[in-house]
Task: inverse folding
């Protein structure tokens, strides 16, 4: 008989069949089209894909920050500790943002207000959510800046964003995000504006903060190197859909989807000499003009006839590995699929 301790724990955050569409003069754009994934306690999950694949819009949908009036969440569930965030009132949702789920955006200059001091901006979530008494805010802010490795934090509280370097501004944004003690941190390509050396330092810092604060992290990136440093599992997105979910080890050792394979092949390797770096031909489709079937089929060197007609079902492999690809949907010797292969 199974005991309570043996029962699997429910995910901290679970996204089910999430759909976010944009209604424009050019048509309906399916920016997020049936996305499903989960995030456990103290786990790091990466959303991987090219620009325009729907990663950032997925994160904005989780926090219900989709640009309006064109954008609308039209279906699905976002379950946080069992509560569907899509059904909460706006007032209840404001209590979730920052306090339970926080977000770090790509560009710190678009996050930080140039006319307010760093101390005021880091303290804002503490005031809004009343985390500490007013008399203890200054000390708490200094501790947060120290946590993100800002030198002499107490002397920098009255400084403004333009007085900080790019790496320090990104650290301040991180301090603001974790100030209210959230359980989930969404990091949307936070190292994009940093040089390579500072990127490595920032990723180590993010991992240290996760260990010290018991954070769960949803990390959005198109950089396989940063993803390998911080994530436990990966969800690969293309044209608003998740096409593959797997562990980081499986990502580099045995990817199953042709798009995932193409992403890996596009990364330069120091142990190989090549005359021309491999690349993925073409570009992701426009969200309001998606082709029928699998959206990657026009760029896929292994596409079958059926790929251009129907989107494949999700096939579970092993070790939590799942893929949406007709190459894995049935036995490769199945006559229906074998007859649909493209002839040279």
Result:
């Amino acid at each position: 008989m199974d005991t309570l301790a043996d029962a699997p724990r429910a995910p901290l955050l679970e996204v089910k069949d999430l759909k976010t569409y944009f209604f424009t003069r050019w048509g309906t754009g399916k920016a997020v089209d049936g996305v499903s994934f989960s995030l456990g306690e103290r786990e790091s999950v990466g959303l991987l894909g090219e620009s325009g694949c729907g990663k950032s819009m997925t994160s904005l949908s989780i926090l219900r920050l989709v640009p309006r009036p064109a954008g609308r969440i039209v279906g699905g569930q976002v379950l946080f500790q069992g509560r569907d965030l899509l059904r909460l009132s706006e007032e209840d949702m404001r209590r979730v943002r920052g306090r339970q789920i926080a977000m770090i955006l790509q560009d710190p200059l678009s996050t930080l207000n140039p006319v307010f001091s760093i101390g005021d901006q880091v303290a804002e979530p503490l005031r809004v959510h009343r985390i500490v008494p007013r008399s203890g805010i200054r000390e708490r802010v200094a501790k947060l800046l120290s946590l993100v490795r800002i030198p002499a934090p107490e002397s920098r509280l009255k400084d403004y964003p333009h007085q900080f370097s790019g790496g320090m501004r990104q650290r301040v944004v991180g301090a603001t995000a974790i100030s209210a003690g959230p359980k989930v941190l969404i990091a949307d390509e936070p190292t994009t504006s940093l040089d390579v050396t500072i990127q490595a330092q920032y990723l180590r810092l993010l991992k240290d903060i996760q260990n010290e604060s018991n954070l769960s992290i949803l990390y959005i990136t198109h950089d396989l190197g940063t993803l390998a440093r911080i994530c436990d599992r990966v969800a690969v997105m293309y044209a608003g859909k998740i096409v593959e979910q797997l562990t980081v080890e499986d990502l580099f050792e045995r990817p199953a989807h042709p798009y995932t394979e193409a992403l890996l092949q596009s990364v330069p390797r120091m142990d190989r000499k090549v005359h021309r770096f491999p690349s993925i031909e073409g570009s992701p489709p426009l969200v309001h003009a998606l082709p029928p079937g699998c959206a990657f089929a026009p760029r896929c060197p292994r596409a079958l006839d059926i790929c251009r007609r129907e989107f494949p079902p999700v096939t579970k492999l092993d070790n939590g590995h799942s893929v949406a690809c007709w190459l894995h949907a049935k036995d490769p010797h199945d006559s229906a699929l074998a007859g649909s292969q493209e002839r040279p």
Summary: The domain at 9-100+182-269+276-338 is CATH 3.40.50.300 (Rossmann fold). The chain has a mean pLDDT of 87.
